[in-house]
Specification:
Its EC number is 7.6.2.1. There is one protein chain. The chain is of the alpha+beta class. An 11-stranded mixed sheet has the order 18-43-42-41-19-35-40-38-37-39-36, sandwiched between helices. Strands 21-20-34-33-32-31-30-29-28 form a 9-stranded antiparallel sheet, with helices on both faces. β37 (925-928) and β38 form a beta hairpin. α31 runs antiparallel to α37 and α35 (1138-1162) packs antiparallel against α36 (1170-1192).
């Protein structure tokens, strides 16, 4: 089939009607039920394949019974009775007959880009009886957690609706837009306009409850009966915050307007009357044909029609879209590329899905000259990308402006909330209760006082009906009666005591978190020189959560390992071949010497660390015949052809000393999104099978010096359901083969068995796979089969329907793949090494010592996972392994109960109901490995039976037992799908109160990262999707040790103390006012000036809190890293808990009493005025709270001294300024007080007596009941003294 023609142009017309009741071609009859969906008749045998079972860890496989999809076993295909009926089966048409409402029921757990079908769709597998029993067991588990269902529904929202496809007329924007309301290409990212800025900004700001609280207080103070403070002064805090925020928002929005204006006025070349003319971006419409030159940005989402490359390839940089720095390849269809290169006008129709946010999927088809062919994600380039290494590219606009995927994804990820902040709200509620009680006491006291003095009210100040001024009758005083005066007293008390609710605490916490993030980003110990990446704080809300992590969920590949794949071993036709690694350098010439040189017509120079195995090279290049030679040939041909890797060929530079004149050397590099594929293609090239060309219709392979041009008839890409990839190739001799590679569990079930030469190869290869896995190598199985003309015709017809469908395309493609992916001939297996990152074993060991439970979630085999677990110190070799292979939950539970009895491991109810987590099960542990999709390898708490030592339990079952899993320190989950990772994290979050952290490096880890309390992304080889979805990002896994044990500990200790101190600081001030009001007839008058009350939290005491919250360190980083168990202080909530809150409140009560009564008793016999007393209380409370803070500071630096003592000096300075203003009632008070020794003595007594109980308590507690932190701090101090004074 020529690549220049439509691949499926000779198939039957799409509009041809098809029968509705059809029999399956390889198995028992399949009928259409009343709903029009596939049904299994009584004569059929269904099986649930191994790869489909990956998705049922939490028993989420149940969908409506009407949507159960049939999987056909291989055994029945061998029945000749059904073989001739192959042509009659059209699965795609059967799916088209399903009602849309019922088809949506198929959407469940799975990959976002794969429509999430999590049960096998016509999966071909062996062992139907066992699989059938598994299916029955799985269908019995019909209960899902409500949270999982919500997650599924939320994720399902991203599935595009193809019921109403968008029609794009190529090069006819007018016709495209005349009957459709398509968006123009003008974008707007700004929030405001000149007219709506003020009202809209105020509306947004007052969504914050704190601002509403401020507004309510200011409004109450404007009422004459409630004017406790000056009306202007009461508005100052609110106006200040609103103005600052408005200026900031206005500046940011002005920058957005400027950016939008520059973006919309850029120009692009648009086709008009067969010529390209410049046109502003904002004028571009859907249907326009655009030409993009090299290094230019893409103005909208456009389907490629042609490029400067004859093969239709374009290279794009997607960094602005997904953060990935590696170039991506996109293709123009060969049908349109030839027309573009030939200068012909293109007119056709593109039918595509409605705009959606999924940047990794695009479903469409194109009609051109009466032919229809599919379009996918590889045919579209998105707005925000750049064209690279391609002279020009031409495309038709399908999405413009706000409908582009980049703009649809511009919404920010919902922010997470700190656990400590949640606890803080609980204490804030208690403070609200205290505030209410105090206000009620004042109001009740006021009512009683008025009732008692009711006859005297006419003669009492402020209650006389008439004021007398200079002997004359003045204005009348409004007296509202006892009930209303009592109510007004209650409201006035709220105004006076308003700072009891620490609104300023939220602002202080944000500033402190910002400062903490600055120092975390600047930590040189968390800088990765290999990737030139610094630590990133992408979320400022949850710094303190890093100090309370109990569970760490980690991906393996790229997170624990380097994700730099190296081809190590291969098993070909039952024989093992080992490949030595190069130790001399990255560049290696693959040249065959001597008489074998005749097989090479061209030499390829590539970057490789592989020395070809001499024995295998001899097999490939000698004149040998037989099945082994054919299998080896097909093996490497499959590695070179079955992939999506793009070869980049360049001439050998003349400056290269290895090149000689006339040398035919060419340099070739491979670029792909999967490091595994790149490693396999490189290995194939090292053995002489070099992929040197790829287009949308064919590939070029240099096989042993012979250049082959192979037509690609179709490609079934790897997906999480099938776990394999296949490509249908037509060879120059017109033979057609399907080449397949995939996971062993996926391939082995669809191999052709019963053949005398094939069965021994399968057995031997399986043993090789086990050996490779035991060494920690990643394995893939390679297989192939020939296709007859009849099989090819049927597959082509169904493939055309599936690949051009706009509805359930991925499901139909999986069904189509099942038609050819069976009865495969096993060729061999590959083993790739992915080395551990530096420092991973040490980091995991430290995390375990810190009391953190490490769970590794991987899709690898059990043996591979165990080997990696041993090498990174998750598992140890001295463990007693308990092997449990259960096919059902009941069987698994029974085997677990037997093991518990044997090894004396206690559990609440091992077979009936799930017990609660045991907090203390951390001393010893039990190892539990597993090889199942949903079961795990666990290192669990072992309370009894120490004579057996550590235990290892291997589980093969379909459910993860929560009671056992939560007893574990380390869990290794094998064969888990991406969404199952999120499900495991959600299980722990939902059933425990522990903090969870998820760390990963790839797009398959995004759901897990977003589900965890703290998400960490690794800047690795798999792009930056994980980084973009994370809260924190780093270059290496080993940095997690420092992030948690050092910065996590510091942040938690600082924020915990900050919250308690703010509660204390505000409460002591309010209680002082409360005692004063009780002594002034409950009148809510204040001895403090209005400005002193306002500036107390804003200026007088705020700066020391912020500085200490950013810079204070209870222990050095060396001590925290040396003794990881100190991290457990966060688990015990030593820095912030309910007990500390109540102790702080009791201490606050004492200090407020001392603060109020010492000056009262000191000046009892004096004639001091009330404003002088208020001035004394103001400076005394500031000194008291700052000395209180100084008692708790662990690390004194210059800026800490300046902030702590400087705030006292600033307070004196402000009081001097305020007391120098003649119009204020406190004019001159500070000058008179400063001359009196009694004034200074009162301040000294307040400070000493107020803090004495706290000092005594701290001394006794540290001497008799020291914490681990205090002991470690004393040890630090002793070491410093020893170094200072010498030995």
């Amino acid at each position: 089939m020529s690549s220049g023609k439509p691949l499926l142009s000779q198939s039957a017309p799409l509009s041809a009607p098809q029968p509705l009741s059809i029999h399956h071609n390889r198995h028992s009859s399949l009928t259409i039920s009343s709903l029009g969906c596939l049904r299994r008749t009584a004569s059929s045998s269904s099986s649930i394949s191994d790869e489909a079972q990956v998705n049922n860890l939490y028993d989420l496989k149940e969908v409506e019974q009407d949507t159960v999809t049939t999987s056909v076993s291989r055994n029945s295909r061998e029945s000749s009775a059904f073989w001739p009926k192959r042509k009659e089966y059209r699965s795609a048409e059967l799916y088209l007959q399903c009602p849309r409402r019922k088809r949506r029921g198929l959407v469940s757990w799975g990959g976002v880009a794969d429509s999430w079908l999590d049960i096998s769709a016509l999966e071909v597998s062996g062992g139907s009886s066992r699989a059938s029993s598994r299916a029955q067991d799985n269908l019995k588990k019909s209960q899902r957690s409500e949270r999982f269902l919500q997650i599924s529904m939320q994720l399902a929202e991203s599935i595009p609706n193809h019921d109403n496809p968008r029609l794009i007329h190529i090069n006819d924007a007018k016709k495209t837009n005349e009957n459709a309301d398509f968006s123009g290409n003008e974008i707007r990212t700004s929030k405001y306009t000149f007219l709506n800025f003020l009202p809209k900004n105020l509306f947004i700001q007052f969504h914050r409850v704190a601002y509403l609280y401020f507004l309510a207080i200011a409004a109450l103070n404007q009422l004459p009966p409630l004017a406790v403070f000056g009306r202007t002064v009461s508005l100052f805090p609110l106006l200040f915050v609103l103005t600052v925020t408005a200026v900031k928002d206005g500046y940011e929005d002005w920058r957005r307007h400027r950016s939008d204006r520059n973006e919309n006025n850029r120009e692009a070349l648009v086709l008009n009357s067969e010529k390209f003319y410049p046109k502003r971006w904002k004028k571009i419409q859907a249907g326009d044909v655009i030409k993009i030159c090299s290094d230019e940005a893409i103005p909208c989402d456009m389907v490629l029609l042609g490029t400067s490359d004859p093969s239709g390839i374009a290279y794009i940089l997607t960094m602005n879209l997904d953060g990935e720095s590696n170039l991506k390849t996109r293709y123009a269809r060969q049908e349109t590329n030839n027309l573009v290169l030939g200068g012909s006008t293109i007119s056709g129709i593109v039918r595509c899905e409605q705009p959606n946010r999924n940047i990794y999927e695009f479903t469409a088809n194109m009609e051109l000259k009466g032919h229809r062919f599919p379009l996918s994600q590889s045919n579209i380039i998105l707005r925000g990308c750049q064209l690279k290494n391609t002279e020009w590219a031409v495309g038709v606009v399908v999405y413009a402006g706000q409908e582009t995927k980049a703009m649809l994804n511009s919404a920010m990820t919902p922010s997470k909330r700190s656990r400590l902040e949640t606890y803080m709200n609980r204490e804030t509620l208690w403070l609200s209760v205290f505030l209410l009680i105090m206000c009620l006491v004042v109001a009740f006291g006021m009512g009683l006082w008025l009732k008692r003095h009711e006859p005297e009210l006419e003669s009492l100040p402020y209650y006389r009906k008439t004021y007398f001024e200079k002997g004359k009758v003045g204005k009348k005083f409004k007296y509202y009666g006892i009930p209303m005066e009592t109510f007004f007293s209650f409201l006035s008390s709220i105004i006076v005591f308003q700072i009891m609710i620490p609104i300023s605490l939220y602002i202080t916490m944000e500033l402190v978190r910002l400062g903490q993030s600055y120092f975390m980003i600047g930590d040189r110990e968390m800088y990765d020189s290999s990737t030139n990446s610094k630590f990133q704080c992408r979320s400022l809300n949850i710094n303190e959560d890093l100090g309370q992590i109990r569970y760490v969920f980690s991906d393996k590949t790229g997170t624990l390992t380097e994700n730099k794949m190296e081809f190590r071993k291969s098993s070909i036709w039952g024989k093992n071949y080992d490949c030595r690694l190069s130790l001399t350098g990255p560049s290696q010439d693959i040249v065959v010497e001597g008489e074998d040189a005749k097989f090479f017509r061209q030499k390829w120079r590539l970057q490789s660390e592989i020395f070809p195995n001499p024995e295998l090279m001899k097999l490939l290049y000698k004149d040998l015949y037989g099945e082994e030679k054919i299998a080896a040939h097909d093996f490497f041909l499959t590695l070179a052809a079955c992939n999506t890797v793009i070869p980049i060929v360049s001439e050998c530079p003349s400056s290269d000393p290895d090149c000689t004149p006339g040398d035919t050397h060419k340099s070739i590099a491979y670029q792909g999104e999967s490091p595994d594929e790149q490693a396999l293609v490189t290995a194939a090239s090292a053995y002489g099978y070099t992929l040197f060309e790829r287009t949308s219709g064919h590939i070029g392979i240099d096989a042993n010096g012979e250049k082959l041009r192979l037509d690609v008839l179709g490609l079934h890409e790897f997906d999480s359901v099938r776990k394999r990839m296949s490509v249908v190739i037509r060879f120059p001799n017109d033979t057609v083969k399907v080449l397949v590679k995939g996971a062993d569990t996926s391939i082995c079930s669809i191999l052709k068995k019963g053949h005398p030469s094939n069965d021994p190869v399968i057995s031997t290869t399986q043993s090789h796979l086990n050996e490779y896995s035991a060494e920690g190598l990643r394995t893939l199985v390679v297989a192939a089969r020939d296709l007859s003309d009849e099989q090819l015709a049927e597959w082509q017809c169904m493939y055309e329907d599936a690949s051009t469908s706009l509805t359930d395309r991925s499901i139909k493609l999986r069904q189509t793949a099942a038609l050819i992916e069976y009865d495969l001939k096993l060729l061999g297996a590959t083993a790739i090494e992915d080395k551990l990152q530096d420092g991973v074993p040490e980091a995991i060991e430290s995390l375990r010592q810190a009391g953190i439970k490490v769970w590794v979630l991987t899709g690898d085999k059990q043996e591979t996972a165990i080997s990696i677990g041993l090498s990174c110190r998750l598992l140890t070799t001295d463990m007693h392994q308990i092997i449990i292979n259960g096919n059902s939950e009941d069987e698994c539970r029974k085997l677990l109960c037997d093991a518990r009895e044997k090894y004396f491991v206690k559990s609440a109810s091992c077979c009936d109901q799930t017990p609660k987590r045991k907090k203390k099960a951390e001393i010893d542990y039990l190892e539990i490995p597993s090889n199942t999709k949903s079961a795990s390898q666990m290192r669990a708490g072992q309370e009894d039976g120490p004579t057996f030592g550590p235990l290892a339990l291997v589980i093969d079952g379909n459910s993860l037992l929560f009671d056992l899993a939560t007893m574990c320190r380390v869990v290794l989950c094998c064969r888990v799908a991406p969404l199952q990772k999120a499900g495991i994290v959600d299980m722990i979050k939902g059933r425990t109160d522990d903090m969870t952290l998820a760390i990963g490096d790839g797009a398959n880890d995004v759901s897990m990262i977003q589900m965890a309390d703290v998400g960490v992304g690794i800047c690795g080889q798999e792009g930056r999707q994980a980084v973009m979805a994370s809260d924190f990002a780093m270059g290496q896994f080993r940095f997690l040790k420092r992030l948690l044990l050092v910065h996590g500990h510091w942040n938690y200790q600082r924020i915990g103390y900050l919250v308690l101190y703010n509660f204390y600081r505000n409460a002591v001030f309010v209680l002082m006012l409360f005692w004063y009001i009780l002594c002034t007839a409950f009148s809510t008058t204040s001895a403090l000036t209005d400005w002193s009350s306002v500036l107390y939290s804003v200026i007088y005491t705020s700066l020391p809190t912020i500085v200490v919250g950013i810079l204070d360190k209870d222990l050095s980083h060396k001590t925290l890293l040396k003794y990881p168990k100190l991290y457990a202080a966060g688990h015990r909530q030593e820095s912030y808990n309910m007990s500390l809150f109540w102790i702080t409140m009791v201490d606050t009560l004492w200090q407020s009493l001392v603060l109020f009564y010492i000056p009262l008793f000191t000046y009892e016999e004096s004639t001091i005025d009330i404003w002088s007393m208020g001035s004394l209380w103001t400076i005394a409370v500031v000194i008291l709270v700052n000395v209180h803070l100084a008692m708790d500071i662990q690390r004194w630096v210059v800026i800490t001294h300046m902030a702590t003592w400087g705030s006292i000096i600033v307070t004196y300075g402000c009081m001097v300024v305020l007391d120098s203003i003649p119009v204020l009632p406190n004019y001159g008070t500070i000058y008179n007080l400063g001359k009196s020794p009694t004034y200074w003595l009162s301040i000294l007594l307040i400070t000493v007596i107020g803090l004495l109980p706290r000092f005594v308590f701290k001394v006794f507690h540290q001497i008799f009941w020291p914490s681990d932190i205090q002991i470690a701090r004393e040890a630090e101090i002793l070491r410093k003294r020893h170094r200072f004074f010498g030995s």
